């Protein structure tokens, strides 16, 4: 997989369109969840996109700790329908964690995970820090990974 890791300003309009289209396809259409997908946070995110050939296969966005968040975080984790079941999700999470821990020297990473993926995220060292809760009609759990634990 070919990885592109870019700030919002570095994304071409074509790359941004493809990312937003994939996010709407997965989080709004497939999950039948009407919510504000374009949430105003993309400008401060680091965008991690994995391509197979010229097709977007996997994507997530990363955030550094800030006044709004105690830990670095990974969000909008997706694998496009065509590439599910091909280990793209594992490659994406490895790339995202490495980017935060190696490139940006972050010691802790938080995710707001869909609960059905609990075991998947635990395999990367994430541990729950909340009870299961409903968000946009989908069960979620907050999880944190601390480097070296």
Describe what this molecule looks like in 3D.
The protein has 149 residues and is an alpha+beta fold. It has a single domain (2-146), classed as Aminopeptidase. The protein is built from 3 helices and 8 strands, in the order βαβββαβαβββ. The protein has helices at residues 13-30, 88-103, 118-122; strands at residues 2-7, 46-52, 55-63, 72-79, 108-114, 127-128, 133-135, 138-146. Strands 1, 2, 3, 4, 5, 6, 7 and 8 form an 8-stranded mixed beta sheet that branches. Strand 7 (133-135) and strand 8 (138-146) form a beta hairpin. It is globular. The mean pLDDT is 94. One of its GO terms (molecular function) is acyltransferase activity. Pfam families: Acetyltransf_10. Residues 6-148 form the N-acetyltransferase domain.
Please name the defining characteristics of this protein.
149 residues; alpha+beta; Aminopeptidase; eight-stranded mixed sheet; 26% helix; acyltransferase; GNAT_dom; acyltransferase activity; EC 2.3.1.-; transferase
Extended strand count: 8
Please state the overall shape, judged from the principal axes of the Cα atoms: globular
Task: Examine the coordinates and then state which fold CATH places here, giving the name of the CATH topology.
Answer: Aminopeptidase
What structural category arises from helix and sheet content?
alpha+beta
């Amino acid at each position: 997989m070919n990885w592109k890791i870019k700030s919002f300003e570095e994304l071409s309009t074509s790359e941004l369109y493809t990312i937003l289209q994939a996010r709407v396809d997965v989080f709004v259409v497939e999950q039948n969840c009407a919510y504000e997908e374009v949430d105003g946070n993309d400008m401060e995110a680091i965008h991690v996109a994995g391509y197979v050939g010229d097709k977007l296969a996997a994507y997530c966005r990363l955030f550094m700790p800030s006044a709004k968040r105690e830990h670095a975080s990974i969000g909008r984790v997706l694998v496009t329908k065509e590439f599910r079941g091909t280990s793209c999700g594992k490659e994406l999470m490895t790339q995202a964690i490495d980017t935060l821990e190696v490139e940006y020297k972050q010691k802790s990473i938080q995710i707001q995970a869909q609960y059905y993926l609990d075991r998947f995220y635990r395999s990367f060292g994430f541990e729950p820090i909340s009870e299961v809760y409903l968000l946009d009609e989908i069960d979620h759990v907050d999880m944190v990974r601390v480097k070296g634990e």
